[in-house]
Design brief:
The chain is of the alpha+beta class and 250 residues long. The protein has one domain: Creatine Amidinohydrolase (Alpha-Beta Complex), CATH 3.90.230. The chain is built from four helices and 15 strands. The strands form four sheets. The chain has a five-stranded antiparallel β-sheet. It is globular and about 45 Å long. It starts with 7 loop residues before the first helix and ends in a 5-residue tail after the last strand.
């Protein structure tokens, strides 16, 4: 494992990338509503990223055909935007977006309600966001990555939610996926966090079982039992004083 710790200059560039990502999410929050297509959301994200002198990190990544991942209801991650997919009242949609600014990546995901959603889905969104921030509390120098994972797992267990086990967080920097990989449950990982590490923490929790499958498009991941899934993610800088969230508005 090779973990690349970032300089102050590089962290500043990552903040710029993260700001672009945050601008996209601010627009998603205002735009997502019944009747809009996921392709419209993708086009909006692309315009914002390009207008801010950044590049859409996901577009073309291993052949991915879009700027955002748009994953609805039982879709966990990597949903492909389409003119044929129209959001409807009661849906939830996870939007994952990456932007590259001057060679550095910002990566963040958020799950949004489409109109009025069920109480069960409200709980799912609340709990998954809570698990993200619970994990982030441990993103400080000399803490352990295992404590990040354990904090996420504890929130999932509190709400009796399934944990997606095949996917998780990861280092971020010059590449979208760097070391270390971050499980969302305990694995006895002994890695000690150090100042300058930049890592995306991204719990994915399900109303039902842990198990997921990949659809025939070779991208879209769905829950095996077809129950809803939520996804929240921030890119974070480890500091001596705690986490510095990089994917937020400057």
């Amino acid at each position: 494992m090779s973990i690349y710790r970032k300089s102050k200059f590089e962290i500043n560039l990552m903040k710029q990338a993260g700001n672009v990502v945050a601008l996209v999410h601010a627009a998603m929050k205002e735009t997502i509503k019944p009747g809009i297509t996921t392709k419209e959301l993708d086009n909006l994200a692309h315009r914002i990223i390009k207008a801010n002198k950044a590049e859409p990190t996901f577009l073309g990544y291993h052949g991915f055909p879009a700027t955002i991942c748009a994953s609805i209801n039982e879709q966990v991650v990597h949903g492909i935007p389409s003119n044929d997919i129209i959001l409807k009242e009661g849906d939830i949609i996870s939007v994952d977006v990456g932007a590259t600014f001057k060679g550095f990546v910002g990566d963040s995901a958020w799950t949004y309600a489409v109109g009025n959603i069920s109480e069960e889905n409200k709980m799912l969104l609340k709990a998954t966001e809570e698990s993200l921030f619970s994990g982030l509390e441990h993103m400080k120098s000399n803490d352990r990555l295992e404590n990040v994972a354990g904090a996420i797992e504890d929130v999932a267990k509190k709400y009796k939610l399934g944990i997606v086990r095949q996917y998780g967080g990861h280092g971020v920097g010059r590449e979208m996926h760097e070391d270390p990989f971050v499980f969302n449950y305990r694995t006895n990982n002994q890695l000690i966090l150090q100042k300058g590490m930049t890592i995306a923490i991204e719990p994915m929790l399900n109303l039902g079982c842990d198990d997921v499958i990949v659809l025939d498009d070779n991208w879209t991941v769905v829950t095996k039992d077809k129950k809803a899934s939520a996804h929240f993610e921030h890119t974070v800088h480890v500091t001596d004083n705690g986490p510095e969230i990089l994917t937020k508005l400057l």
